[in-house]
Amino acid sequence: MPIDKPNADKLFSEPMKQIDQFTFNKSVVDVFPDMIKRSVPGYTTIIGMIGDLAERFTQPNTRCYDLGCSLGAATLAMRRRIGVDGCEIVAIDNSQAMIDQCSKLIARDHGATHVDVNCQDVLDVHISNASIVVLNFTLQFIAQEHRHTILKNIYRGLNPGGVLIMSEKVAFEDQSHHELMIDLYHSFKKVNGYSDLEISQKREALENVLIPETLTQHRQRLKACGFADADVWFQCFNFASIIAQKPL
Fold first, then answer.
1. Is residue 99 part of a domain?
2. Which of 33, 66, 78, 204 fits as disulfide partner to 54, beta carbons 3.0 to 4.6 Å?
3. Quick check: is 5 in a domain?
């Protein structure tokens, strides 16, 4: 199958008189593969490992959820590695533009596992009979007062031994370390071709939209929801991924 060359992300390359809040609209969808590759350190590794974890933890006759699926990268990674029978992947995103393109990409894939793609708010999703739930850079876009509710819903819907894979942009309690990680991250973006203007304007667009929390806050919330085992399995600068397992 030929691989389409992604459109270059130039959304913030020109000076803007007014910078609107960042939304996952059609313009973002059109450049999203390039944007995510150049903006999230370790993204390809995380996606690949989600496939590995799906192979390890998916139970027969259960569901795998990709909440905030965007274009379905995690969904496809799971689909290509699930090796047990009777499974279904449920891919959810609240952006219709994302879901429209995700559906096309899923249709072009020939994996055996059925995928159900829906445009829906993750707060409204009923999780049930789940062996894996993925929140891949999703929780950070949800209001903080709703984050416990979402994680509690996930915990209730997971089968014993099921896992949550949650990737997030994180903050740090020590201010000097926090500033160092941000500086290193901005250097990473510059190496990937983003200008100071692009970095500055996108950061302003994401202000009050993407709200990072510390790893301590994430661990405490996950344990409060019932996860006995929750810790980081991947981190690069201020981006990290946590795996949390429901007790058997």
1. yes
2. 78
3. no
Q: Is 102 annotated as a binding residue?
A: no
**DSSP strand pairing (88-93 vs 63-67):** parallel
pLDDT band at 3 (very low <50, low <70, confident <90, very high): very low
Please write the tens of the pLDDT for every residue from 167-205: 999 999 999 999 999 999 999 999 999 999 999 999 999
pTM: 0.96
Is 192 annotated to bind ligand? no
Judge whether 155 is annotated as a binding position: no
**pLDDT of 83-139, one tens digit each?**
999 999 999 999 999 999 999 999 999 999 999 999 999 999 999 999 999 999 999
Q: Is the dihedral of CA 159, 162, 168, 172 positive or negative?
A: positive
For residue 90, the SS3 value is: strand
Check whether 43 is labelled as a binding-site residue.
yes
Q: CA–CA separation, 163 vs 82, rounded Å? A: 14
Is 225 annotated to bind ligand? Answer: no
Does 183 fall in a domain? no
- 122 labeled binding residue: yes
Question: Is 83 annotated as belonging to a binding site?
Answer: no
The C-alpha atoms of residue 210 and residue 143 are separated, in whole angstroms, by 9
**Residue numbers of the domain that contains 226:** 43-171+209-245
Q: Is 70 labelled as part of a ligand binding site?
A: yes
136 carries a ligand binding annotation? yes
Does any domain span residue 60?
yes
CATH number at 125 reads 3.40.50.150
DSSP 3-state assignment of 86?
Answer: coil
